[in-house]
Structure prediction request, 199 residues.
Amino acid sequence: MSPNRRALIERNTKETQLRVELDLDGQGRFEGQVGVPFLEHMLDLLARHARLDLAVSGQGDTQIDPHHTVEDLGIVLGQALAKALGDKRGIYRFGSAAVPMEEALARCVLDICGRPYLHYRADIPTERIGDYETELTEDFFRALVNNAGLTLHLEVLYGKNSHHVVEALFKAFARALRQAAAIDPAATDDIPSTKGVLA
Prediction:
């Protein structure tokens, strides 16, 4: 088991300049700004409920729209998760959570297996929450999954308020991730796979 499950990832393109610092064994703290306030709010929830420390900084071409910033943050966060998890020795590997947010209910089931796959089913009632385009939620999670190597099933069972729906999705993901990435005290030196590798 790695005593230091941390990562620092930077991504610099003509569209975005982003930096993510991640500590999987943190206290649930978030700090930083990237110019997309609603996403920053969701990342705060993610850090709190996954019990990880997350710091983001940088900017993107939000004068065009938030798309590149949101997607690239998914890329960078996914890469940070993969690096912090290392060879995944000792983790529980699987996690699941169902989270209500008033009238909305979201469910997440994930496998930290090294094989990226996203099943995403979410009927978000409106196209926007403030300046945030709600369709970007799927783009964020797809980028994260592809770069972290997660199999992720994420769905909304029902919900009428778009803010509640998206918040429930992020909280469900966070809770499932917290469970899956936790160290199993009964198997701290084991790779949780009959293949002997998670890749």
